[in-house]
Design goal:
mainly alpha; two-stranded antiparallel ribbon; 4 strands; about 0% strand
């Protein structure tokens, strides 16, 4: 489907290039071409939704968790997976942006199409050598877990102590494991009229699976603000860069969007250091295969993301002051005499935070879900960033309405020299601190899934 979407995007760009253009200065697209283009984009998005969580889970499934050496390699897999993803992103942002801006969009879409076709061929060549994970239980994991909540809800009025006394199953209920979410233990109680039929009573394993999934919810919620911060690198950071001096030499300017390459490069450079230097040191200190726990790794990245917002706010304040000093505050299209490389620290900090948080969350949501729900777990991880982007848009709209009334310039004024992105970055830093505190509280009480790599 992804290959089809890229093919249609290339075709849509070809159709636009064939439209009537006057003196090569102005071209128009028909409504049909616009619909065709956006349909192609949605097809690519749907393909990504199916591809991303499944291919990561499939890749991690190639490692045997019961083999000590492969168990260590599985932790490194997520590091090198992310390394490959952002290595490709660095190439894309460096070269494809230039091709699309300066040559043509047909070639800009055609190169990814050819690359995807080659990748698909390589993937298919290895089909016979892949490991496939199967379970004896043919019931859908979602059905098993959903049944626990349904039966527990039916038995919500049943007194667990009374049931224990009548059936002598105190020991059985205690085997459920933890003191958390004890209301789910009622799924072990036969509902009225069931006569103890096992078909209508959940097993201890099912209850344990439901508890494991429910434990993920607080972690998922406390990571949403990180995703809001994550959305800024491709939006306001780029807008800041477009107003600054992007010259390299007398005849070349860096495209503002290409500054995101700094994130990719910092990830590509730091992941080998993390995997080959920091993790072995961590293993010696903590005795854990991954050096530090997945939640500790994620928390480190959250802290760095707060630092990135603080740095971004300070740099934006300097950019605004430079615009004032040179009398450019009411000249939004003028280039502010301040090098775009002032933005490099916030981009690099973003990359470092991704190495910790993004990779940590990938491994966490893969490792902590029950067998058979690996791709669902990674879908939960991806949903953090999908919902985070929506929350970012909602937050921006709300602030826009609150600060832009009565003819005043809002924090996000079209004239960026009269806007106050620095205030917005300070606000995100404050939210990030609150989020980090909530995350530390939730992670402290989190009980890892039995047998997981902590």
């Amino acid at each position: 489907m992804g290959l089809q979407g890229l093919g249609l995007l290339t075709m849509s760009a070809s159709l636009v290039s064939l439209t009537d253009c006057k003196n090569n200065t102005s071209c128009s697209s028909s409504t049909l071409q616009v619909v065709f283009f956006f349909s192609s984009l949605y097809l690519v998005a749907i393909a990504q939704g199916g591809h991303k969580p499944c291919v990561q889970a499939f890749g991690a499934d190639q490692f045997d968790r019961h083999d000590p050496e492969e168990f260590k390699s599985k932790s490194s897999f997520f590091n090198w997976w992310y390394f490959g993803v952002y290595g490709g992103t660095a190439v894309s942002l460096s070269f494809l942006n230039y091709i699309q801006d300066n040559l043509n969009w047909v070639l800009g879409f055609g190169i990814p199409l050819i690359s995807m076709a080659i990748a698909l061929i390589i993937f298919l060549l290895g089909v016979k050598s892949y490991r496939y994970s199967f379970t004896d239980d043919k019931t859908s994991p979602l059905v098993r877990i959903g049944k626990v909540f349904v039966v527990a809800a039916r038995n919500r009025r049943v007194s667990t102590p009374a049931f224990e006394e009548e059936n002598g199953c105190q020991k059985t209920l205690n085997r459920v494991g933890s003191h958390q979410y004890r209301f789910l233990d009622k799924a072990l109680i036969p509902t009225a009229g069931d006569s103890g039929s096992d078909q209508n009573v959940c097993s201890i394993t099912q209850v344990e699976e439901a508890k494991v999934v429910l434990r993920l919810v607080p972690i998922w919620i406390t990571c949403l603000m990180y995703a809001v911060v994550f959305a800024q690198s491709s939006t306001f950071f780029t807008k800041q860069g477009s107003t600054m001096d992007r010259s390299i030499g007398p005849n070349f300017k860096i495209p503002a969007a290409s500054l995101q390459t700094l994130i990719s490069l910092s990830i590509v450079l730091f992941i080998p250091i993390y995997d080959r230097v920091l993790v072995p040191i961590g293993r010696v200190v903590t005795g854990k295969p991954s050096g530090i726990t997945m939640l500790q790794r994620t928390g480190c990245g959250m802290f760095i993301s707060v630092l990135s917002m603080v740095v971004a706010a300070i740099i934006e304040k300097k950019r605004l002051q430079t615009a004032i000093d040179f009398g450019l505050i009411d000249m939004p299209k003028a280039t502010i005499p301040m090098s775009v490389w002032w933005l490099a620290p916030q981009y690099i900090l973003f990359g470092l935070s991704d190495v910790f948080t993004m990779v940590g969350l990938q491994e966490f949501f893969y490792d902590q879900v029950p067998d058979g729900l690996r791709s669902i777990g990674l879908s939960l991880y991806l949903s953090i960033f999908g919902i985070g982007h929506f929350l970012s848009g909602f937050l921006i709209s709300t602030i826009e309405n609150l600060t832009g009334g009565n003819g005043q310039d809002s924090w996000f004024s079209d004239n960026l020299n009269r806007a106050h992105l620095d205030y917005y970055y300070w606000l995100l830093a404050g939210f990030g601190i609150i989020e980090l505190a909530a995350y530390l509280y939730c992670s402290k009480s989190y009980l890892y899934n039995t047998g997981a790599s902590k």
